[in-house]
Amino acid sequence: MRPGGQPNMQQIMKQAQKMQEQMAKAQAELAEAELTGTAGGGLVTVVVTGLGEYKSVKIDPKAVDADDVETLEDLVLAAIHNAAEAQRELTEKKMGPVSGGLTLPGF
User: Fold this and answer.
1) How far is the CA of 47 from the CAs of 37, 69, 92, 94, in angstroms?
2) What are phi and psi of 6, to 5 degrees?
């Protein structure tokens, strides 16, 4: 703070610009990252980007049983949850330092 208790606006603007640059870099890194979630010992695999965009679902033919569709549904859901958790952890790792630990909506 400057004498008289007034914040230095130029310093605040520099800090805001630096934070904006760090945020853009972190978002670009998240967009490029691909994370994998699996279930059933690899019978179902889901790939998601660091921004939460699902890219693919792979199902091993051994997981397909016409008489037990429910198990396959559970495996797909578990792989999605696993990928989403990996994405959340990466987002916290990349965005945490930029946001000073604040949770940002949409990230």
Assistant:
1) 6, 22, 18, 19
2) -90, 135
- Quick one: tokens of 13? 């603007």
- What's the pLDDT score for residue 101? 53
- DSSP line for the chain: --TTS---HHHHHHHHHHHHHHHHHHHHHHHH-EEEEEETTTTEEEEEETTS-EEEEEE-GGG--TT-HHHHHHHHHHHHHHHHHHHHHHHHHHHHHHHTTPPPTT-
Q: Give 61-97 pLDDT, tens digit per residue.
A: 999 999 999 999 999 999 999 999 999 999 888 887 7
Q: How many CB atoms neighbour CB 53 within 10 A? A: 11
